[in-house]
Amino acid sequence: MVINSIWIIALVAIAGIIIRPYNVPEYVWAIAGAVLLLVLGMLTPAEALEGVRKGTDVYLFLTGMMLLAETARDQGLFDWLAVQATNQADGSANRLFGLVYLVGIVVTAFLSNDATAVVLTPAVAAAVKAADVKKPLPYLFICAFIANAASFVLPISNPANLVIYGTHMPSLMHWLAQYGLPSVVSIGITYAVLRFTQQASLQGNVACNIPVPTLSTGGRMALMGIALTALVLLGASAMDAELGLPTAVAGILTSVVVMVKTRTNPWSVIKQVSWSVLPLVAGLFVLVEGLNKTGLVDQLAALLQQEIARSVTQAAWLSGVGLALVCNLMNNLPAGLIVGSVVQTGAIPDMIKSFLLIGIDLGPNLSVTGSLATILWLVALRREGIQVSAWEFLKLGIPVMLIALLASLAVVWVQYQVS
């Protein structure tokens, strides 16, 4: 009875996050589900706190990135970058589309997919305004889709990568050899499908030769802070360290230095940060803690071992594609935590780990709530006064995600066959 109740509460909470009935924010549903598990005695206070504690690295990472993004916005960095990108497009809507996509690859690879949603989305929104683009959504869609499509270029490109491998993260060279080609395929196919589906909105010209505003001292310092954060993340990844604390330190230090130098009121920056993301993540971690009590991890581990005994190839395809779809039913953050626990329970062939990683990274491109990055993207869009419905995203996500996923998994499968 208790197990069934935990499942019902978790599923209702996740459904609320996905559907957002009556426009109730995502975090309200996550927190409500977590509190209900606690109040009804299905989780002890100690277990709930342990669930919250497990998300510490994610909270720190998001705090650093959101402060960086808001400081950069406040100092006019995004407006300056927007004009630069627009002028580089030389009046071509297609060229602007390609430039935004290229920048999205770089930001995702070196700062993570969540950073793409938090940092790049407002910059692109500013760019399309500067370019007087009549249909901005094709450019903004890039921020959501490339955040997941390029999230296995490097280990730091997606925090979920660390969850799958745990303390046995491959070396950087081994990672590049294993995921380099699948990443190229994922990025290339996502671009091709996006470009094809959005072509009708990319006709005509965009504004060019826009006067470039002077980048303020604070803007230059914010840009340096973002570059420094990328270097810090690469260093932390090379040392196999958690990414949250160094990101938080870099983001907070950058914000403090900029605000002191420019004599900016800290409250003007802090109040603009989307802090509601943090309780959303905490609630999801508590919900996962509840699901763990149902024996889900042990059941999934046993099921996976049965499939491996039948056929490693079949197990890889079923788990990779299955996980990609499940991420869109419950978000890839809780899904990743559960699968990470499953992977750590026993000896799992490397090919299956690769399939699971690509499934959890690329699969969320199907729906608006498939990944935390996409939720952050939605929050960023709402701040710009832009709404994207779940159905609108799904119609585009079906071809974008499915084609890229199957092609990327096929490349991984071929690599393991010839190695």
Poorly predicted ranges: none
- Rounded radius of gyration (Å): 21 Å
Biggest β-sheet description: none
Averaged pLDDT: 87
Q: What is the number of beta strands? A: 0
Distance linking N and C termini: 49 Å
Please state the structural category: mainly alpha
Number of alpha- plus pi-helical segments: 20
Strand content: under 5%
- What is the 3D shape? globular
**Topology pattern, helix = H, strand = E:** HHHHHHHHHHHHHHHHHHHH
Query: What is the share of helical residues?
Result: over 70%
Set down the secondary structure blueprint.
Elements: H1 2-19, H2 26-39, H3 45-54, H4 56-74, H5 77-88, H6 93-111, H7 113-130, H8 137-149, H9 159-165, H10 172-198, H11 217-238, H12 244-262, H13 266-270, H14 277-292, H15 296-310, H16 312-330, H17 332-344, H18 350-362, H19 372-383, H20 390-418
Structure write-up:
The chain is an all-alpha fold and 419 residues long. Helix content is 76%, strand content 0%. The protein has helices spanning 2-19, 26-39, 45-54, 56-74, 77-88, 93-111, 113-130, 137-149, 159-165, 172-198, 217-238, 244-262, 266-270, 277-292, 296-310, 312-330, 332-344, 350-362, 372-383, 390-418. Helix 15 (296-310) packs antiparallel against helix 16. It starts with a helix and ends with a helix.
Q: Key features?
A:
419 residues, mainly alpha, 20 helices, 0% strand, globular
Short structural description:
This protein is mostly helical. It has helices at 2-19, 26-39, 45-54, 56-74, 77-88, 93-111, 113-130, 137-149, 159-165, 172-198, 217-238, 244-262, 266-270, 277-292, 296-310, 312-330, 332-344, 350-362, 372-383, 390-418. Helix 8 (137-149) runs antiparallel to helix 10, helix 9 packs parallel to helix 17 (332-344) and helix 16 (312-330) packs antiparallel against helix 17.
